[in-house]
C-alpha cells in the first residue's frame, strides 16, 4: 500500500484512463509511420548524393572531375521546373 | 565541325545552359571553362591544329567569371603558380 498522496494520484490516473479509453499504444502507429518514412527518405537522399552527385569524387586518382562525365541532356535534379532536358544538345567544341 | 563552331562563336550571345552545373552556384562552371580554354589551347597546339575553336570557352568564361578572378588566374599562369590542372 502506497502513501496517501501517491495512492490518490494512482487512482486519479485509473479514472483518467477509464474515461479516456482510447489512450492506447496502437494510436501512435501513424506517428511511427511518418517517422520511419522520413528517416528512410533522408537516408536514401544522402546515399544518392554520395553516389550519384556529379560534384562528389571518392577516388581522386581515377575520377578527378566527375561532372565532366555527364551527358549534355542528363538531369541530376529530382525536380526541374521550366527546363526541357530532352531538347538540349552538345554545344562545346571537342579538343 | 570547324564551320559550325565558328558560326556558334560568331552568333554568341551568352553562356548556354550547362547540364553539368544546373544549380544557382556557377563557380565551377566558370572555373571549368577557364580550364577548358587553356587545355584546349594546349591540346590543339600540341596536335598542330588551329586553336580558333577554343575561343568558345574563352567567351563562356568571360561571360561567367568575375574579372578579378580572371586576372588573378592569368597572373598565376604567368607565374607558374596556377592551382588547376591544365
UniProtKB/TrEMBL annotation, chain A:
Keywords: Electron transport, Membrane, Mitochondrion, Mitochondrion inner membrane, Respiratory chain, Transmembrane, Transmembrane helix, Transport. GO terms for cellular component: mitochondrial inner membrane. It holds the Pfam family B12D. The keyword Lyase does not apply. InterPro entries: B12D. It is a single-pass membrane protein. The chain crosses the membrane at residues 28-51. It comes from the Eukaryota. It is found in: Mitochondrion inner membrane. Belongs to the complex IV NDUFA4 subunit family. This is Cytochrome c oxidase subunit NDUFA4. It comes from Oreochromis niloticus (Nile tilapia).
Automatic annotation (TrEMBL), chain B:
The keyword Kinase does not apply. PANTHER family: CYTOCHROME C OXIDASE SUBUNIT 6B. GO terms for cellular component: mitochondrion; respiratory chain complex IV. InterPro entries: COX6B-like, CX6/COA6-like_sf, Cyt_c_oxidase_su6B. CDD domains: Cyt_c_Oxidase_VIb (cd00926). This is Cytochrome c oxidase subunit. Disulfide bonds join 30-65, 40-54. Component of the cytochrome c oxidase, the last enzyme in the mitochondrial electron transport chain which drives oxidative phosphorylation. It is found in: Mitochondrion. Keywords: Disulfide bond, Mitochondrion. Belongs to the cytochrome c oxidase subunit 6B.
